[in-house]
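Reply to dn_fold:

You asked what the input looked like. This is it:
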Amino acid sequence: MEPSLDDYKLSCELLGHSMDVRAVAVGPATPEGGQTILSGSRDKSTKVWKPSGNEYFESLTLQDHKNFISYIYFLESEQWICTASNDATICIYKQDDFVPLLTLKGHGSTVCALSEGLQPRSLISGSWDKTARVWTISEAGDVSFIALEGHEAAVWAVATLKEQHKYVTGGADKNIYYWNAEGEKLRLLKGHTDCVRGVMGLDANTLLSCGNDAVLRFWNEDGECVREMSGHTNYIYSMAQNRTLGDQVVVSCGEDSTLRMWNVITGDELGAPIIHPGISVWSVACLKNGDIVTGCSDGVVRVFSHVPARQANEGILKAFDLGVATRKSQINEEIGGVKKTDLPGPEALLSNGTREGQTKMVRHADGSVKCYSWTLGNWNLVGDVMGASGGTQSSSGKKLHEGKEYDFVFNVDISDTEPPIKLPYNRGEDPWQVAQTFIHRNNLPQAYLDQVANFIVKNSNSGSVPMEQAPAGYRDPFTGGSRYVPGSSNTNVRSGGNVDPFTGASSYSTASSNAQSQVDVNFVRSGDKHFPVRSYRTFDTCDAKKVLEKMMEFNSKLGLVDGRVGDEVLLAVIKFTDQSPELDLTSLEALNLLLKWPASFQFPVLDILRLAVRNEPIFVVLNNSHNFLGTVIPQLTGSAANQLMVVRCLTNSLSHATGRQHVMSRLPEIIDLVGTIKAGTANLQIAVATFYLNLTISQTLNVAKSEVCHMVTSGVVELLKWAKDLEACYRSMQAIGNLTTTSCGQETIAQVVSVDYVMDKLRELTNTPQGENFSKVNSVGQALLAAF
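and this is what came back:
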């Protein structure tokens, strides 16, 4: 009888970590014949759990890393516990020791994968610095290494094939490489369409891999992908072999909250997935008795067993089932066409209402959605929000769409050649939230947000249906201006997009003696609401003539071997400086040619690229055909001019759904590289701050992810340590403010408050009069400190 995950139930939960459990592994054996469990967390600690009957107790906590634990490996031959961290180091502990035997340093960024080496006392590691290293430690404690270089992005996965005497690595460049013991590249496997997160050697010289494309791939001895296993609906983070059930049985886990089991020979999924109460199941390992261990974003280590005697009692199982039911309701339930997970949590009630009688729907931890009304300076509970009332369209007075009832179902014409798209809307909903959901669901450009929202405002009001509107004194939380509503006028707001913040009005250069006049136009604010920010910020304008002149100057200095092109290529590329560039394949090929220029000549090309990627279809072609992100991200370590343009390019990419998806898939690598920037002009400071601000907007408009919020907060904190430009400081403070309004708000506040220097700087910025142009810094500071 084939094994099945249906036979597994929760055995126990190991509670002790205060944040995400990012790594689990099987540790040393106990004298009684059991096995310890190792767990590593975002709380920077590694814990050793020893078995006691069917339970496990915390026997040891290791706290020598300066940042979160990303991976744990137990080197059985030496009885070493090896921990990898975001601090770019590897700590090696002897069993039961509190202090590391050795700390391996040398990687330039997060170490995110570990495995045993081919030689005794050796390890292989993978890092965000795009390399893998094979470390050898002598009996005397001397350390040597071989670097495996060839990936174009972070190395997320490593494995050792002992029988073949080879290493395997997988990376964010979607590639899998084989290497010999000397660090020479032997073979390249292509097939994954996104970041490779795991590789595992199997019998008969076969290989299994998984990744962000939500697919497990089985490769034969000849390097051919002969089987794909689909079932996960989001990133796959980890996999492990369960040899007790059979060499062909593998388990996997990922961002879809599930643990799954597979027969890799047949490709069949074995049983139904086990859903976890948390969003991300980061890591999985299998004990010799067949039990399965997972680490989850809710901070809990869980053990699942197929043996009834080791399964938890009824009370514990019921509590777990309740958590799973809550998670399922968060995934599946909708109210009025809006997913519950898209609604704000109780933290939304910490912000004052904008007018008497304003209503707000709030999602609670038990899965319920309640309606609150702003009356007499407080949010007062109105009652539970229920689903559609039932009945037919004629009996209910509502319109039906996809089986649900709405007050309105609009027909929206997006294209002359396509049928209208249905836009459902219920009274009392925030038009901008509904518009954002509509844009994501139909893969429309982010630039449509205000247009769609205003369409709702206009057409729902035309039916004489009362609905919440922005009051006369409302100010957009990003620009500070009144939001445009058809039929209204706004003569008091100065445009923020008429002067290019890099080129200024008179010259095209990488520096300026008059930096203050060439940075972004300052926004005018007459309201006091500075966050949450709803609208993505882009760097839009450009002096096409001066960019073309600079490219011609550089082109004249190049030889044919270095990439000199004809003028027609430069003229094709300059089309991307249009306000609404078209998807032109000739221009795209021309841009790809110029991106191969030497790095010292690339900044005008990158300037054009950051304009081109605002257009979602152009972004798709550039990234799918030319992997432009893989080309430009390394420039974050290049010249100041190139750094500036790449950060702006990433910032603009975040303005649409496809761009956000691809940037998010490489976010740890990107934030790590942006974090290496410790000085720069006002323009660069503003670009970095705006990049982080756009990232936080993505978290306020969707379900906030703890990992993303943590990384972004860390990045903003590092920026505030050196940034001096007031506009950059203002946007950084807005970014923090955004995150305080999400479900990760308390974690963000804790991170910021723990850094004394940044808290002192925030108080100084808040309490020091900044003058008329930057009084907004004082205001946002007051709001931010009040949230703390």
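The radius of gyration is 27 Å.
Hope that clears it up.
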